[in-house]
Amino acid sequence: TPSDWFQQKWVEWQKALQQWHAKHGEYKASVAKKEAAKAAKKAAAAAKEAAKKEAAAKESEEKKEGDAAPMDEDKEEKAEKKDEEKEEKKEEEEEKWVEWQKALQQWHAKHGEYKASVAKKEAAKAAEETVDFENVDVFGVNDIMNIGASTPLFKDFQFEDWTMMSLRFELHLLAHAFRHDVEDPERTGIHLDHLAFYYNKYF
User: Fold this and answer.
1) Three-state SS string across the chain, please?
2) Domain boundaries defined on the chain
3) What is the pTM of this model?
4) Which of the listed residues 17, 83, 94, 196 has the most CB atoms within 10 Å of its CB?
5) What is the mean pLDDT of the chain?
């Protein structure tokens, strides 16, 4: 019969395994969120470019239609009236235009400074969050839940990996539990022929 020592170790293992599964789920969700944001940004840029091209094509088409269609008298009168109004407001608009250009230049300069600052911060953050996973020493990791940038050591685990890891621990615990529970110095381990029997006995 499995001892209290075995039961305690088994409960501790189950708790640790649950924490690892939770961390794995959090990491996967975080990666998926970043990928979705990246895809959305790319789609938005593509949509913006498509809208820009569509607007340019529409403007070009309208211009061609305007050049091809003869202006009637009403349109000519409206055009002349519009020109007169422009002349009357020309001086006032020129002054306002100069003021607007100055303000616009200031805003562009400020926008450029802000974008440069954000880009610098993002580059620094990306550099900090980069993990050279291929060269990680798995036996030298201090925290398997976070080897850097909140990345768990088991970030790429699949169902088979979790199953094999659990089986390895169960066999490890079984070997130690048997030696602990049998309390016989002459029986230090389980014979291979009896492994299935004791595995079913404990698990």
Assistant:
1) CCCHHHHHHHHHHHHHHHHHHHHHHHHHHHHHHHHHHHHHHHHHHHHHHHHHHHHHHHHHHHHHHHHHCCCCHHHHHHHHHHHHHHHHHHHHHHHHHHHHHHHHHHHHHHHHHHHHHHHHHHHHHHHHHCCCHHHCCCCCCCCCCCCCCCCCCCCCCCHHHHHHHHHHHHHHHHHHHHHHHHCCCCCCCCCHHHHHHHHHHHC
2) 10-47+143-154, 158-202
3) 0.57
4) 17
5) 85
